[in-house]
Amino acid sequence: MLKNLFLGLIFLFSGLTFSQIPAKETKVMVRAQAKDAKFIGTSMGSARIVIKDVLSGEILAQGLTEGGTGDTELIMNKPIARNAKISTEGTAGFLASIKLTEPRLVTIEAYGPLDKKHSIAKASTQTWLIPGKDILGDGIILPISGFVVEIISPEAVTSSTISEFTFEANVIMMCGCPVTSGGMWNADQYEVNAQITNLDTQNEQELILKPNGETNRFSAKSTLEKGNYELLMYAFDPETGNSGVDKKIISID
Known about the structure:
The chain is mainly β.
């Protein structure tokens, strides 16, 4: 009798599945932070966050970071003690709410900044999510490296009787933070160059662009003959390894 009861209990519990266990809502805050800078939020078109199961690939949550870039003093200047928070109310982030019946190993990805398509970069990490165990506060911070570099001049098609042109780039941090000489993000320590290739002759030249006094702007002058050129401009920070590139074809007639 006892043996039959015991076997019956085993059969009963073995028939239970995780799908029959009540799901627990689990909240996860995810933020994307520009390397050596602040958070990527609404002002830069946000960062896209994707949380998916490692084994099955199932997307458990996805959305955009919303909010501001955060407190400059807190993020950039104050020494960060263990467990100290660097986010404040309104700091950009994506709050996921996921119903879990069991622990799941997930990949968390961030893509951004979405407003600057040619500069979008990806960062990711993996962690276990436990049912009912929220990850809040700063949450999970994904660092995104790079600069946003945009060619300002010359224009793609230029009709001109002069041979000297201004080559100008706009360079900002991935969070949109400004780059200025002697500033928090010091333009004087960044290397900004233009590589110019004549597509007709394959002749190449390289220019060093310098801060020109305007926020985020670097420029240099050089002569060009009429023709078609590939223009590539890059920014590089030897201190942090941040880098960014923009490229376009220009025609001078």
